[in-house]
Design goal:
Strand content: 15-25%
Radius of gyration: 21 Å
Shape: globular
Mean pLDDT: 91
CATH class of one domain: Alpha Beta
Number of helices: 9
Largest sheet: 9 strands, mixed
Structural class: alpha/beta
Amino acid sequence: MRWACIWLLCPLGPLVLLSASTNPPNVLLIFADDLGFGDLGSYGHPTSATPNLDKMAARGLRFTDFYASCPICSPSRAALLTGRYQTRSGVYPGVFYPGSRGGLPLSELTIAEVLKARGYTTAMVGKWHLGLGANGSFLPIHQGFDHFLGVPYSHDQHTHYPQFGSQEYVGQSLRGPFGDALMEFDGSVGLLLQALQENGLEGNTLVFFTADNGPETMRMARGGSSGLLKCGKGTTYEGGMREPAVAYWPGRISPGVTHEMASTLDILPTLAALAGAPLPTVPLDGYDLSPVLFGGGKSPRQMMFYYPPSPSKLLGVFAIRYGKYKAHFFTQGAFLSGTTPDQDCHGLTPLKSHEPPLLFDLEADPAENYNLLQGGAVGPEVLRVVKEIQLHKALFDQRMEFGESQIGKGIDSALQPCCAPGCTPKPSCCHCS
């Protein structure tokens, strides 16, 4: 399987469910890399060939307001697995590298560990990117997964740049190399869905698809598309963190589109509820999305807090979404979001503080074009919203406990996997022929 992280979570025996189902569901989580809000056909791209993902979107529940916790890989993956902002687990600033000393702390409880306690068998396939460590101490098999087949860090061949496609797919897409890679990714999703159907598992398997962060627009046409959203990877604008997401479970989840707010942070609490598993006894940042998935109800998530790739206690969150409104207290460009005409996205655009914050109505203006506090009379509702958001920021920043930075532990080249064990000097001697 290329270009994604796949988590396979399957119950081994009879369990008690806290939902309408009499049997615990199998779970298949598909987590794409650097995929933008506008990259799939079902999300409006005119030339993307994604028939299997589009089928899931048509027959499942498609989210329009679904968020990753961070606009880059490692922190986003940590948050999905733990249901906690990456600041709590110490997966900041930036991402892990082949020789990184740190990793997702083993003290953190993952989705796999939560479900294994209820009798699930678990597997992880694809890109891990949450640390390797001495003797593989941070690999998935030490974080609740029974099986792992993949790479421990980014190898720059997912829909991640530079894209790779097998002979069957190269040159087959109207979108060039990115489109070819996306088409192959979609083909792999199709094989997974086919396997579920052929083995009679489709009716008892929740398939959830989303992505880790927005597109790397510095690569231009080879970097993906955020559609109508502003900027992309590395920024706290919508294009950096709002992602395509689909929940697919024939017979249990009714087809439709939801505008309810949700996040990767919510996946752990949701799966725990479905399996009847107790939640970890640590501060969680996610919510059970069962009302949205099964009843068309309201999401318990009413706010989303946006952290940059390199968060700090001093600045706190850069932006907050509160209902339909989004306030930016700080903005900064990112080289990963360069090359677009919008100067706000570029890497040389410095950190800016905004007091009062920039305020946007994301229902009317998802592209974040029109600051409601700029020019003209400001109505009482807007003033009330700004005060409430400012209060929420102060309380959230005050209560957030930053874990020790795992990425800040530095690099040790001896930790980098090597295809010529025992060679010197590392890592230059490790290049495979």
